[in-house]
Amino acid sequence: MQRFAVGALAAAVVLVAALLLAPLLLSEHHIRAEVTRSIQTATGVMPRIEGPARLTLLPRPAIRLDEVMLDDGSSNAPTASALQASLQFWPLFFGEIKIATLTLERPRLSLQLSPEGRLISGLPLNPVMPADGDVPELRIVNGTVLLRVQGRDRVEIISNVQASLNWTGASLTATGSFMIGGKPANGSIVIADTAAMAKSQRSSIRLRLELESGRLAYEGGVLVRENALQAEGTLSADGSSLRQTLALFGISPPSQNGFGRFSLKSAVTLTPIALTFSNLALELDGNRADGGFTFKRDGNRTTLQGTLASEAADLSIYSGILQLTSGDGREWNRTPIEASTLQHLDVDFRLSCGKLTIGKIEISKAAIAIGVKNRQLTAAIGEGQYYGGTLRGNAIWNMAENKPALKIDANLTNFDLERGLGGLTGFRRLEGKGTLTVAITSRGQTVHELASALAGKVQLAMRQGSLTGINAEAVLRRLERRPLSGTGDLRGGKTPFDRLTGTLEIEGGVAELSSFEIESQILKIRLAGEASVARRDFDLRGTASLIRAAQGATQVAFDLPFLIQGHWDNPYLLPDPEALIRHSGATAPLLDAVRGRAAREAMRNVIETVTGLRSIGELPANPTFEPPTATAPAVAPISAPSAPEPQVQ
Hints:
By secondary structure, the chain is an alpha+beta fold. Among the domains are: 14-154, no CATH class; 182-299; 466-575, no CATH class; 586-611. Helix content is 16%, strand content 50%. The protein contains 9 helices and 32 strands. A hairpin with a 2-residue loop joins strand 27 (494-507) and strand 28. The protein is rod-shaped, with a radius of gyration of 44 Å. The chain starts with a helix and ends in a 38-residue tail after the last helix.
């Protein structure tokens, strides 16, 4: 035991002596040279060390250097406030320095990309492999990465970077955590052959990124050629909010609503000018679609080309992109239509859908083509099923002009008008199937402005339908029996008909009803007047007639003029009161008497004004009149009739 204790004590003395003498055996020049070699080996960049170098032995051997710059030849070379290199213990006994890890404290890295995605400046992952393949581990503590794209003012900042980079031969494994957009994230990357990438050759890569709002994983090949990244592999992503995920990278979705839970799996190909997704399976906000699309970049313009197919898609959540009416649905939306996202975007996109739902509109077996070119949006439906009928049409929205212009041509054949027309305009007073032809134009920046400037023509034709909100036959029969006592609330019920035809001529947001007829075997209704598209109200006049068959012919048994006024959602009917009085046998003579008395009162007022007499009875038997004075109006002489004197009835 004594020998063992003496041996241990001697070893401790030798160890302490070696630790105390090691700094004396290593010069500062030797320390700087070894650290420089290690940094160049780990990064491929020659460092420039401006601060002093200090060697410490406790609690573990390490070298600390201040004010380190990694000179990659750019004006914004990466910098670090300090570098600490931990040393292997046993080589120190022989006066050698072998670095185990390099730790960069508060490094600052600036990456600059061209609009096409080419790397202009930044720190390359290009280690210089020594003959023994021994590369020290590189650690980053509290680092910051600035990402700039030429031509853009926005700078993406990735802060609080805590990372570790390990080389095994030519293979690099990097793991770490960081803050992006104020949100925590972590990830890892494995590059199989960094030496091949340094020679602009392909290397396999595995990338994983985890955010609060989503996860992303890529596996495939990558190469860097002429400072441009190219890749081909498989990409998968999923998360709780696509909106928040895109926001971290400075991308704003085109709608204020939606873009929540998502899932994506696709083969991807990245080139300096394009990103292509093929064999794509996409789920977003409960909708699933398959297909592919390509993003292309040409200067400041981005082009989207793609095709998607879906069995059923509900896009109602994105209706905020173009909401037609206000919150209560009684007025047109006055919010400017947001189209800034299309200013630098060209689109050639096609969607095939078994059932497409947008708000209260449903289209089945829809084949939709959407195009954007030079700030002009074009949407076309080749042939879709619309509430039991067929829909064909196209719309052009030209945003290149000072006041955007709209043009719509559509033909809806044999469709359910209550649901179809109600979904488009909110008018739900017609039941049955019909045909609607629309050819309209307008200008404006809001839906309200477009409605106020609307011009064009709309034609409607129906057979075997009904008008809801009033039973015209029952109202006419009631008024025929009791014209004056049956004028209560006339609303309620339905008016069946065999045929309906109507033509609207629209100018300046006012629709002139040039012809509108409803016919059945016992009823005929004609309407004319105006409907304000801007105010969404009616000002119509018409005649409703009861028809009776008489000896093989038809005759009008009862007709009634009427007015229709009020809002589209709740118009009211006003029968002509004079017509009701005429149809009343007891009060018709009274109406004539009232009319006669009114005429005589009007004549008496004229005579009193001209002659100054209070009544015709005051006229003399042989009246003579003095010529009018200069101040009085000239009046022709009036010869009074001979006896008998006029009698007032």
